[in-house]
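F.,

This is the one I mentioned.
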């Protein structure tokens, strides 16, 4: 329970908290309604928070590397929940900061460590409802995060497996075109099961695998260059000026 002195101090502080008074202060505290480009949701944020969140979301999306609208929607949900989780933790620190500001003068023991400990304990007693609710709020966010992350992981695993199988088929189809001396340019594409691959991308992948195959062969031969490596499939790297010929 707060003492009468503490209650009076809190009331006095509340009367002094009139918000920003200067124009720069009002500008920093100004809130703007924003619509998220993908989700269509409205958010009310300060300009500083908006910039910080946009950068935060951009980095999260770059890490998760979503493909397609649904994967991106899940990735945005993860970014939003991570932001909310960080905000909840910041609020807990700020509550203790406010408690120290309000109560520090009430406990003069001569020992800074003791004073901090007492102020923290009194802050918890004064604001224990908020501090108790914060972990519950964090747990709900973490459960939502876990479910969303699992759904995204499952979706990406399925897509990547299908894409890997499609690439193998596309490489064979491209190799056949090269064998048949069909015109191949960097703009040539091969489509398999809804996946579209450029000739440049496929040939780069083939050559990469061939180089690794060669490295493994010579490693097994003790790097003896007299041994002859024969690749199962090799295509030249194409450019805008040349077309690949049959291997």
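My design for it:
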């Amino acid at each position: 329970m707060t003492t009468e002195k503490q209650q009076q101090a809190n009331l006095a502080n509340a009367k002094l908290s009139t918000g920003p008074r200067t124009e720069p202060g009002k500008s920093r505290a100004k809130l703007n309604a924003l619509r998220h480009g993908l989700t269509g949701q409205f958010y009310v944020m300060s300009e500083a928070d908006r910039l910080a969140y946009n950068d935060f979301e951009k980095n999260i999306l770059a890490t998760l590397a979503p493909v397609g609208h649904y994967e991106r929607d899940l990735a945005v949900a993860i970014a939003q929940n991570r932001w909310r989780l960080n905000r909840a933790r910041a609020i807990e620190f700020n509550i203790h900061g406010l408690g120290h500001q309000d109560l520090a003068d009430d406990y003069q023991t001569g020992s800074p460590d003791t004073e901090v400990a007492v102020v923290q304990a009194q802050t918890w007693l004064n604001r224990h409802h908020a501090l108790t609710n914060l972990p519950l709020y964090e747990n709900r966010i973490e459960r939502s995060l876990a479910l969303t992350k699992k759904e995204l992981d499952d979706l990406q695993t399925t897509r990547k497996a299908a894409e890997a199988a499609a690439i193998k088929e596309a490489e064979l189809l491209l190799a056949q075109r090269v064998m048949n001396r069909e015109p191949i340019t960097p703009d040539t594409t091969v489509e398999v099961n809804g996946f579209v691959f450029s000739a440049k991308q496929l040939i780069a992948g083939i050559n990469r695998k061939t180089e690794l195959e060669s490295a493994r062969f010579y490693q097994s031969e003790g790097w003896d260059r007299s041994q002859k490596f024969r690749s199962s499939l090799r295509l030249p790297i194409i450019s805008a000026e040349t077309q690949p010929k049959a291997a």
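The chain has seven helices and four strands.

Talk soon.
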